[in-house]
Each structure stands twice: as C-alpha cells, then as structure tokens.
C-alpha cells in the first residue's frame, strides 16, 4: 500500500431503493438515497459527514460498511475493492471497518453480559485461540473504551449501565477487532448532553493514539466542528461542500452550508449571526429537482440553476463546493 493511499475511498457511489409504481401506467420509482458521492478518509483522520435527516448519510454509512450493496460506484479500503480484488475477503473488510450506531440501548443484547458482548466479534472472526487470550483482548478493548477497571464490567448486563457506559461498550465491541476505520453514525445523539463530549473525546483520542480513521455522521454542526479535522456537507444524496473544518466554518461557500451554519448558536452574546431560514419543501429523494438539487430552497438561485447540475469544484486549499455561482 502506498503511503498516500487513503484509508477509505468512495468513487462515484450511488445507492437507490426501488419502491415500485404508484399506478399501472406510471414508471417504477426509486429513492435515490446516495446519488454520486466521492470522498476519501485519510489514515487517522476524522471526517464529519453533516446533513439534515433523510439526506442519505446513514445509507452511505451502511453501504460503506457493506450492509447495503451499492447500485453503482466503488468503495476502496486501503486501495482494495472486495468486489474486484479476488484476494481480498469480505470478512477482512468487516474486521477492518467497524460501525458504532446511534442507539446504545438497541445495539446491545439485553441478555448478554458485557464480557460476552465484546467477545462475540472475536468468536465470529475466529481471532483468538483460547479463553485467556480472548479475555485479555476483551479487557483491553473495554479499558481502551474508558471502562476501567474492565473486570468490574465483564459480568454485568446492559441494563445495569448508564447510557454513556453502554455506548462505551458498543465502542469496545468495535475496538476489539482492532479496526482501521470506524463509521460512527450519530454516536452521541441519544446521550445526555453532559456525556456527549466524553464520548467524542474518546473517539478523538482513539483516532490520534491508534491511527483509526473515523467518519462521524451527524446532523449537528456544533459537535462536528468540535470533533473533526475535515467536514463534508451532504444534501439530498450528494456532497455539496467539502474541506478542512476551519476553512468551511470560517468561509462557507455553498448556500446550504451557510444556512446550516447560520443557526448554530454562538457562545458570545455580542456576536449575532443573521439566520438564514430556507424556504420551500423539505427535500424528497424520490423526486430530485432538475439542475442544482438545492435550487427550490436556495436564496440566491438564478435561472440556470434549474438547468445545470453543478459538480464539486476546487476552490483552493482542498476546499470544494458544488455551486454554479462559484465557477
Ligand atoms: Fe444555489 Fe444555484 Fe448555487 Fe445551487 S447552483 S447552490 S441553486 S446558487
């Protein structure tokens, strides 16, 4: 593997779901959940994928994880594609790329002890030869996830833990396989505000200390700004802006990013941002507008926005945005 090869790369990825016909004379309809996404995540990098509910970010994560089959496009892990690289096995993919879901209450089996829950991936992948080796890896994963001393948690059941501790168990279940990439889908949105920062700090530390690449999926620009090195803003199945976190926060180029940022609270009563309230209907992934998909809600749309579909263009410093007015 070349040192410049990203940990994960997505090339022109599409994921559509067929939903059938509305009537006998109508055409088949599809939900275009992911509609031509290209991005990459470097080794040890944290990338925030931000967008409103229904924009396709969770479908993108499930497709990256291999839980949904892409309709078109490719996904590479360290330059390897499990579809075309016959020597690369899908099981290896699953071990290297792990997912942390939103709801730690639903992610854990209420009848399994914490020790058995974290040990299960090792058994599925056949990675340990005996019980002492397995116990040692489980304890290490729990401690890396901040549950110390780990032996105190091994025989407990999920209902005996707080929400934050449960999400740490979920993270330990991912860490036990020593993954290279973690896809964290809204990992703190179900948790109390007081423990959100703790979990985000834990993920940040894991990225820094173990070189794990993290895709942090969220609708919350505030936590994304706190957490990630880079940000990708998604709208209706597409990335509309991508760049280093500070570049995008200080100088958002796409009108959608500007609108999202305008409603993020600023912790300074003297600073007031002008709120941009988007008009128009919420986006519908079955009927994506022609031209720029954002044009029905865009406050600065012009006539040609209805006709031309803008692509991401480089604006300098690897900051990219998809808006015709930036060309
Ligand atoms: Fe708005 Fe037009 Fe730019 Fe789309 S291309 S974001 S509609 S100005």
Short description:
The protein contains 10 helices and 11 strands. With 327 residues, it is an alpha/beta fold. It folds into 2 domains: 221 residues, Rossmann fold (3-Layer(aba) Sandwich); 90 residues, no CATH class.
Structure, described:
The chain is α/β, with parallel strands linked by helices. It has 2 domains: 8-228, P-loop containing nucleotide triphosphate hydrolases (Rossmann fold, 3-Layer(aba) Sandwich); 238-327, no CATH class. It is 30% helix and 21% strand. The strands form 2 sheets. Strands 5-6-7-3-8-9-11-10 form an 8-stranded mixed sheet, with helices on both faces. A 3-stranded antiparallel sheet has the order 2-1-4. Strand 6, helix 7 (193-210) and strand 7 (213-218) form a beta-alpha-beta unit. Helix 4 (114-125) packs parallel to helix 6 and helix 5 crosses helix 6. The two termini are 35 Å apart. The structure holds iron/sulfur cluster (SF4). The site of iron/sulfur cluster has 13 residues, from loops.
- How confident is the prediction overall: mean pLDDT? 91
Distance between the termini: 35 Å
Corresponding CATH architecture of the largest domain: 3-Layer(aba) Sandwich
Number of strands: 11
Helix content: 25-40%
